[in-house]
Amino acid sequence: MTGVVGALFDRARERLAPIPRDGLGELVVPKRFLGMGRAPRIVPRGEAWHVGTLLIGDAGGEVEVAAIGDILRSRAEVRRGFTAEAQRERAALQAAAFRGGFAEGATLHLDYAPIDLAAVESGGSSGPLALRDGIASIRWSAAGGWMPLETYLSDRIGLLLDPPGAAGNV
Q1: For a disulfide at 43, which of 9, 75, 89, 100, Cβ 3.0-4.6 Å?
Q2: Would you call 40 helix, strand, or coil by DSSP?
Q3: How many CB atoms lie within 10 A of CB 120?
Q4: Would you place residue 57 in the very low, low, confident or very high pLDDT band (cuts 50, 70, 90)?
């Protein structure tokens, strides 16, 4: 993609090259077979770098950017006791990711929202990105203010490349 926003993400991808990517997944609910339901699974749909509130990937050399959704770790299905329904639902999604082909413990993103970089380039907005006063900007939370995208990417990628303290040793 050409333009200011595309160039920012092209540079970001170059800096992110040595960092491992997370998986992207899609929940698939199989059709019933002979009246029997089959367990849903989360199937792989690519990979992307998790940079703050953004997912940065590429498809055929073109930059793809999305706003994060749910973040999971794939886990084998086991019987557990749960104190909350939310825990049960999350464990079911983790098991669906394992059934879908993600390695146990792999981090994956689900329900992410693609961002239209062309709309941002043309002066509009898409997801957390907007062109404000001619500057590509990001709002990293619904209650947060706008920040220049170039600064945001530089800061976040810097933290990924050189985590503070023992954060990188986890």
Answers
A1: 100
A2: coil
A3: 24
A4: very high
